[in-house]
Write a structure and sequence with these properties.
By secondary structure, this protein is mainly α. It has a domain at about 25-80. It contains 4 helices and no strands. The mean pLDDT is about 90.
């Protein structure tokens, strides 16, 4: 069995940012999966079943992405600093 040990100097801001991204990788993967597979199908269904303009469609996409990130407990501001 292979092992890897990652070391971070948490007093260094760049290392802290890398550490935060690493410990949130599962949440990011779950959110991306939801966006790629489930959200797009849901949005496509809503757009095809209703007549909505492009502005409303963009709002719908933004709202759905925010919901997914919240459901995955992913704080984008925390991982992009």
């Amino acid at each position: 069995m292979s092992k890897a040990i990652l070391e971070y100097n948490l007093s260094n801001s760049e290392d802290l940012a890398s550490y935060t991204r690493a410990v949130n990788a599962d949440k990011m993967a779950a959110a991306l999966f939801e966006i790629q597979y489930n959200m797009l199908k849901k949005i496509r269904y809503i757009i095809e079943s209703k007549e909505i303009d492009s502005h409303d469609a963009l709002d719908l996409v933004a709202d759905e992405m925010e919901n997914i990130l919240n459901e995955c407990y992913l704080n984008v501001e925390e991982i992009t600093q």
